[in-house]
Structure formats: structure tokens, C-alpha cells
Amino acid sequence: MRLTTALSLLLGVPGTLVAATTYFRETFDDDAWKTRWLQSSSRADYGKFAISTGTFFADPVASRAFQTQDDARNYAISAPFTKEFDSTNSTFVLQYSVKFERGSNCAGGYIKILPPGVDVARLNGETPYNIMFGPDICGPDQKVHFILNYDKENRMIQGEIPAPIDQLSHLYTLIIYPNQTYAILIDNEVDAEGSLFDDFDFFPPKTIPDPNASKPADWDDRETIDDETDEMPDDWEDEPEEIPDPEDPPPKYWNEDVDGEWFRTMVPNPLWKGEWTPRQIPNPKYKGAWVHPEIANPKYFYHQNVHAYKSAYVAFELWQVTAGSLFDDILVTDSVEEAHAMAAAFVARRVPEYKAKEKLDNEDRARVRREKEAKEKEKAAKGHSEL
Ligand SMILES: *[C@@H]1O[C@H](CO)[C@@H](O)[C@H](O)[C@H]1NC(C)=O
Ligand SMILES: *[C@@H]1O[C@H](CO)[C@@H](O)[C@H](O)[C@H]1NC(C)=O
Ligand SMILES: *[C@@H]1O[C@H](CO)[C@@H](O)[C@H](O)[C@H]1NC(C)=O
């Protein structure tokens, strides 16, 4: 995996106009979302989602988002694609925004892509998924998950992709190409990219240590041996390892005649020399480290289509200690261009959102200052009247 910091927008090859298919698009800008999303009934105590712009935002319509409402809850909700997405021969793009408006205490912010045929009415943590992608923050742990289900096992990307942590909205984009490479963009800039083969453990190793081979009994891999001519000095063991603590005399009230002998606690003896070991000399019979020979792994298999999934739903299946996270602009498409167009609109709202936050922060600071001043005035007036 390469972590990238340079601003580099992935653009489609000019002149290749392939008809884009949008499999899922949700902006929460009106109330039609209600017809799409299905709350899981797997548990009675799931946290609720509601529509909100959050306390600071760029635009009253475009910033409407799905917001988690209840602290210390599991969440489970899903929505179907307009049609099943088989990504065997297509680029798969998943993009959405997350805003941890209340900071980075502890909240999952990832999205899951589910295969067709799962019981979404009873969606829960055990429901199988194809892809899990997006940020997960908990104190100092702030990472972007990228997990692929392969051969019925969830496999995490190797290496860490750090997630940005501030209270602002961030856009997460996952692109999986049919040539089995991927790119992860944050705020429409490439953050990590690589090959699925290199960055995930999909397959058993090609070779294994030969089970029939073992180190010959006479193989000498001791680099040094004891010098037989070296002898322990006579006075080596004169000092014991522990001695009675000189700083632990009997207490004043202790009467040896009545109370018996006082035993001091034992402490390490500073004069103890440790265990004696003979001097080491090079081993004339040393053969080097034994290397276990490898053979082809009979269980090895390889499958071309590690990027290929049949997918049918987006789902939020999360645990949040700190609720209030906002999710928006969810897109599943086969078109990188469509994702970039939507990302451009998102990026254009970043400065207004930042300014709205700054304004709110300034107002907060001014309020705190006014309250402090009022309290001080009150205290001064009280002191005056008591004189
Ligand atoms: C993918 O392309 C191959 C080769 O053209 C074709 O045989 C196969 O049916 C395609 N699969 C899908 C799901 O489109
Ligand atoms: C994989 O496909 C993408 C999109 O067409 C392309 O940009 C990239 O260079 C390809 N990577 C390899 C290793 O072929
Ligand atoms: C190990 O040795 C046995 C007996 O010679 C043989 O049948 C078997 O195939 C060997 N196993 C491997 C992995 O080479």
C-alpha cells in the first residue's frame, strides 16, 4: 500500500465515454430517504437516525444528513441499491461523507456493502458483508477501515490508513478497479493506493516448510561454546544473592526476650556477582543456522477475481459511544467521473462549513467570556454590599 499525500485527482481516460450506472445515491436533501432506508429489528434498543444539518453547516439543504441520535448504542439500518451490482467487469466506487461533529471520543463511521439475499430486516453485526469501508475513531485510535470478505472471511487491509480527526465533514472514496487495484481518497485526494493482491492476505502461501524435513540431530548451530579451560574463581560464590536488609532493624517496641528473634526482610546483595558462566569461544563445529527447506504448498490456490462482488445494499451497522455523527452524499457507482463530480460539490462546501464552525466557536467563546464577567461583577457587588 502506498500512502499518498500529493494532491492527485484520478480522472477518466479522455475520449472513453462509457455510460455510467448509478447503483445508489442518497443526499438526504428531501424526505424521500424514508422510502429507502430500513431500520433493523434485530434488537429493540438500536439507536435512531434522524435528519440534521448539525450545529454548523455550509448549506441548509445540501448539508442535510443522516445523524446518529443516541449515545452508547448500536445502530443498524440499510437501503437497497436500485439494482444488483456485479463488479466483475466494472469499476466499483463507494463514496460518502462523515462528520464527527462532537469530536473523536468513540464512534464507528464506516459503511458496509451487503450481498443480495441477506436478511436486512434483521441486519446485525453477524450479517455477512462484501466490503466495509470508512473511518473508525476511538480516542487515539483513528483509522480508515478497508475490509473485504473473501472466501467467507473478513480480511483487513495490511497497514494503517489514518483518518482525519476534527469536527468537520470529510469525504471518503473507495475505488476498486477490475484490474484488482484500488484507491482510497479522502476529500477527493488520493490517500492510499495499491494492489489487492499485495495488500490483503487472500490466499494460502505458495510454499510451506517441508514437513518431512527436520534439522539433522548432529547439526551444530551453536556459534560459540564454553571455554573448557575457564574456571570459576574460588571467591566467586562467597557472597549470597540476598542479605537481611540493614535498613530494617527491629522496631523500638520489639523485645527479643518476649517477641523472639526479629527477622529482617531480605534484599538483593550489592556484592553478589551473579551466576558464573564460562568464557565463550568460537565453536569449531559450527555449521550455520539450519534453514528449513520449502516445498510447494499443496493447499495453495489462486483466484483471479478478488475484486468481484455481487452487491445489493448499503448499511450502517455501527457502535457509537459518542453519537451525533453525520453521514451524507452516499454514492455507489461504476463511474469515477460521477464520484468526482459529486466530490467537487462536496469540496466546494468545505470552506463555508469551516467558516460556520469558526463563527459558532467565536460565539461560544464570547458567551463563556460574558458569563465569566457577569459572575465576577456579581461577586464584586456582593463583596461590596457585605462591607
Ligand atoms: C465479464 O466479462 C467476461 C468476458 O467478456 C464475460 O464472459 C462475463 O460474462 C462478464 N461478466 C459480467 C458479470 O459482466
Ligand atoms: C488499473 O486500472 C486503473 C484504471 O483503469 C489504471 O489507472 C491503473 O493504472 C491500472 N493498474 C494496473 C497495475 O494495471
Ligand atoms: C513425506 O514422506 C512420505 C514418505 O516418504 C511421503 O509419502 C510424503 O509424500 C512426503 N510428504 C511431502 C510433503 O513431501
TrEMBL record:
What subcellular locations does the record give? Endoplasmic reticulum lumen
Sorted keywords for this record are: Calcium, Chaperone, Disulfide bond, Endoplasmic reticulum, Lectin, Metal-binding, Repeat, Signal, Zinc
Q: What is its main location?
A: endoplasmic reticulum
GO terms under cellular component = endoplasmic reticulum lumen; endoplasmic reticulum membrane
Q: Which cysteines are joined by disulfide bonds?
A: 106-138
Q: State a single Pfam family of this protein.
A: Calreticulin
Which GO BP terms apply? ERAD pathway; protein folding
Molecular function GO labels: calcium ion binding; carbohydrate binding; unfolded protein binding
Q: Does the keyword Repeat apply?
A: yes
Q: Where is the composition biased (Acidic residues)?
A: 220-248
Q: Signal sequence: where?
A: 1-19
What family does the Swiss-Prot or TrEMBL record give for this protein?
A: Belongs to the calreticulin family.
- Cross-referenced PANTHER family, in alphabetical order? CALRETICULIN, CALRETICULIN AND CALNEXIN
Q: Spell out the protein name for this chain.
A: Calreticulin
Query: What is the native source organism of this protein?
Result: Geranomyces variabilis
Lineage, broadest ranks: Eukaryota, Fungi, Fungi incertae sedis, Chytridiomycota, Chytridiomycota incertae sedis
